[in-house]
Amino acid sequence: MKAGRGAALLAAVAASALALAGCGGGDAESDPNVLRLWHYESPDSAMGVAWDAAIKEFEKTHPGVEVEFEEKGFEQIQKTASMVLNSDDAPDIMEYNKGNATAGQLSSQGLLADLTAEVRERGWDKLISPNVAVTAKYDDKGVMGGDKWFGVPNYAEYVMVYYNKELFEKHGVEVPATMAEFTEALDAFVAKGVTPLTNAGAEYMAHQFVYQHALSRADRTWIDNLQRYTGPVSFTDPAWTHGATTFQEWVEKGYVDKNTVGQKAEEAGVAFMKGEYPMMFSGSWWFGRVNAESKFDWGTFVWPEAKFTLGSSGNLWVVPESSENKELAYDFINITLQKHIQNQLGNAGGIPIAADPAAITDEKSKQLIADFNELAEGDKLAYYPDWPVAGFYDALVAQTQRIMNGEDPKEALSTLQTTYEDGLPE
Questions:
Q1: How far is the C-alpha of 391 from the C-alpha of 101, rounded, in Å?
Q2: Which of 3, 84, 94, 185 is deepest in the core (most CB within 10 A)?
Q3: Cβ–Cβ < 8 Å for 248, 404
Q4: Which string of b and e fits 5-30 if b means at least 16 CB within 10 Å?
Q5: Residue 282 and residue 43: Cα distance in Å, rounded?
Q6: Which fold has domain 26-156+312-368?
Q7: pLDDT for the residue 9
Q8: Where are the alpha helices (DSSP H) in 192-320?
Q9: What is the average pLDDT across 246-275?
Q10: Residue 22: pLDDT above 80?
Q11: What CATH architecture does domain 157-311+384-423 belong to?
């Protein structure tokens, strides 16, 4: 990166951080009667619904204490968290992305409180299964799967295919059970002049296609090498090459609209919910909104014949080391893990980690949870491609956009190799 661009980027991020810190108003002094909480879930998402209930219960069980909640954007927190948490404007508790490049990096910088003792004392480790806990625990270098808890998840997530049953029926397309049938379905829609899949080239959706295709040629060792630095990683290996070239072919064939190269995930999701596309390949975090906003009959299915698919614990509750209201933050986390809150999360379309299965009454939610459990029990969760090193999310977005624009996938993958290697911890 040239010095001029680097200085400009740093200035932009700094300005963004100041805007993020200041947008809540009020002073930054600690108030023992206020719990400052940030998260980026929409009000009608499963997590938004459940956490709103948790806020109300917290205030009921903590007379005189007010929860000062601020909804932030995912990208907003992703880009500015280290600066904000290094300032006097940090909240007492916030939702944060899991993985080496995010929660891991902040933990290694000393910006997050070590929750290990609290987790054991409150029994949270008994509620969170080991395969879900991997993303909450980090070593001294910020690599996930370590021995210290720096975050607590209270839900899980994975990426699946949402589909519009009415559009499938209208165009005479069968719901696929195999990869061959999936390709036939894509071709059938294109033949009818319909773009099958919504997409967001400017955010995570597009590079998750690349990763999912790569996973069809991967194994657990490949995943651990990439995510946990347990062995060499090559972005020009058969798996990554297949992922990049196949996604480019999908764009060329019209399975994905090339014009979505600059589109954001929110636009892509809304387009699906308006009935403009038959399918959306994205995460369970959309489930509650799709259920609330879609006016058509819809369903979901796991990527056909997937050896692995994107998924893990949900995002983490983290407590900034600078918080002076840590006990209040721990009490709030504890409420989000209580069965009645977990049950509410499950019935709103989330994947709870400590719910009573018999209390989940919504049929679509039951299927969602059953599919996740099958993936988790079969060791098929492959985390997310942007996790390994700091800055990798932005690199994936940029290089996937190059692939969508028809540039040589080898060059894009080579750039990813350099970014990955430059970001590895010493």
A1: 7
A2: 94
A3: yes
A4: eeeeeeeeeeebbeebbeeeeeeeee
A5: 19
A6: D-Maltodextrin-Binding Protein; domain 2 (3.40.190)
A7: 34
A8: 204-215, 220-228, 238-253, 265-273, 287-293
A9: 98
A10: no
A11: 3-Layer(aba) Sandwich (3.40)
